[in-house]
Amino acid sequence: RSSAASDVYKRQIQGCAHGELDAIYSTLLYIQEKENIKIDLLICCGDFQAVRDQVDLSNLSCPEKYRHMQSFHKYYSGEQIAPILTIFIGGNHEASNHLWELYYGGWVCENIYYLGASGVVNFGGLRIAGISGIFKDYDYLKGHYEKPPFNNKDIRTIYHMREFEIFKLLQFKSPIDIFISHDWPQGITKFGNETELLRKKNFLRTEIANNSFGNPATRELLMQLQPCYWFSAHMHVKFQAIVSHKESGKQTKFLALDKCLPGRDFLQIIDLPSSDSSADLKYDIEWLAILKKTNEHLRFDMNNISLLNSNILCIPSLDDIKYIENRFDNSYVIPKNFINKRDSNELDNLQRIQLLAKLELPNLFVKQNFNERIIEIKENSKIEQNKQEEIVQNNNNRNDKNEDIVNEINPDEIQLDL
């Protein structure tokens, strides 16, 4: 959506972060200095691992040997500040209890923004959309049924994508410049060098041959939304493709990237035209209207109910847009309202409270008693922290004994050392 007056800006795309923020930012700063360029935005495609403390670490879905604090906690505490505005989505290796507090999106620390379970924002005149998690058909039609404090089963299902998030995004009708997902849309390999991909990842051969590889839900988003760019991660390999949409004549350039390791293709700089020189991250007015119209369909149960197979539509009308304009007074800059949980007296995440109040929506999360953990950890003391760790450990021990619920190997996850 460039214009004649547009300038070209450098944006950096990152594959799986796996908590390696220090390494990622130091690489970016090195590139800026070496190439004499300015990068104004970093986009991370999941497995970000926003781990604040030991409680978050225990909620990280990954093999025990990979559970490390890494470096995010320093950015959360304010010891370090992200040098480049960063936007990310969730993958299948996340501190899900932290991200659940920001279901609608929000700042996980200063200058790092989580897009939410699904979301759309604007930056530099570009519309950036995304969806968190990976596809698993047995949870796809369910509501967001997991409740904190999460047990071992919860942390292995909460990142499973739900149809409700796809439904919301399919109500969006404006052009999208960038879309980000963690796993790849189903069938995307047919549009790139499949032979080269299989040379690197031969274990995918059977899935690709029978077309079971990839996410069928995001394939529908790809074909309907037709963004200019689509970025993914998850498979720990670089892969490029170009999807031509015959009826519209549009093209989507797809790029998947590796994880952060020396000698791996985990970063990619792209030049994108920008019609807005502002450095502010902004809400998208159409997305806000969609949040308003769809919130009544947000579910927390385990029933398999499809909105896409119903007659329900939540496409915003002109009146819906006008409502948002009035409520936000035509000012859509996302407030920099991050507060460390230890410094807040609120029973729920302040960012969620403020956004729902602005949209005049009920806080369904509080009504479902989903803020139990938040209430329990408000006391700013080490004793309270220890209590939480003990609760989580006891919960884990209890669930570890139930072999019908928890297995040693999580079949949902690609192994981190691939």
> C-alpha Rg, in Å?
21 Å
The proportion of strand residues reads 15-25%
- Strand arrangement across the biggest beta sheet: 10-11-9-8-7-6-13
Oligomer: single chain
- Low-confidence segments, ≥5 residues, pLDDT <50? 1-5, 369-384, 395-412
Question: How many β-strand stretches?
Answer: 13
**What class would the helix/strand composition place it in?**
alpha/beta
Distance between the termini: 37 Å
pLDDT averaged residue by residue? 87
- Characterize the overall form: globular
Helices and strands, in order, run as: EHEHHEHEEEEHHEHHHEEEEEHHHHHH
Helix content: 25-40%
- Number of continuous helical runs: 15
Q: Major sheet, described briefly?
A: 7 strands, mixed
